[in-house]
Model the fold of this input.
Amino acid sequence: MNWGERWMYRFWLFFKGIKIYEVLKSILSVFGALWALIEMLDYFGQPEVGIFFKSIWWLFLITGIIVIIYRHRPKMYFPFEVEKRDVKISIRIGDILKSKGSTVIPINHKLDADNNGIVAQSSSILKHFIKGKYNGQNQHLDTDIKNSIEDSNGWYENFKVEDKDGEYKIGTVVPIFKEEKHYYLLASSTLNDQNRSRCTEVNLRTSLNELWTYLDIKGNKDHLLIPIIGTGRGRINLNRIEVIKETVLSFLASLSSTSGSYIEELSIVVHPRDIKKYDMDIEELIDFIRLHCNNTNFTVSNGNPSGVGIE
Done:
């Protein structure tokens, strides 16, 4: 997404979120202030100054417009502190591959960066990752994946699918360090006989749970960027709002099992194009995340079971 597209979406978000009555309210308040100023000057015997201000009424109109733009400028970042944990959850509007932070890249369960040329023809994050960081050479990413797995072969033995050479379980995470930035390839979809990827609700929940576990054990405690997993080429049977809600709830559930946090911030990155194309209700998401971040009800476990025994 170039600068022209970014500003186009900013204008779209601005006009989508602005309300006519708020525009009229801002303009009337500015002219109300102008009228009060003129009346005050006339009262104190300075009518000529009041006449001068009347002659530049257009300046007050411009001021009103500037106030409207400032008050309703589109926000691209919505952070929320998680209660009782030193971590944030945020919605970030932008291009995930151009944002700062460690980045989750969805991939198929074969960890295949080519998939018979289908990846290169898609509009997936994986395709743009290969194009931007590997100059479109998927075989170089395949080599990095292979080397990363070999470096921690003991860990990945538990994720290999039995009797299926080259296949890994949903939720397998492969770290890639490229150009001073961490990327986490996350196996979140399966391939059918026609090499078409599919992410189910079960795949989504499993991959998220395994991602949190991996980061808790082997990840770096930094800012994590995650896309809306399973949508687009993933063909998940959930809309984007529902996937984001699942991601938030899954992450909060993972924090309940620890007394701290394993990342500084989880940013769910939404591309502006998706907001416009799918008419996503960002305000609904903001309210949802705020509610759950402020009402976590985390409990600290002492390792002993609790409850009442059944006689």
Notes: Residues 300-311 have pLDDT under 50 and may be disordered.
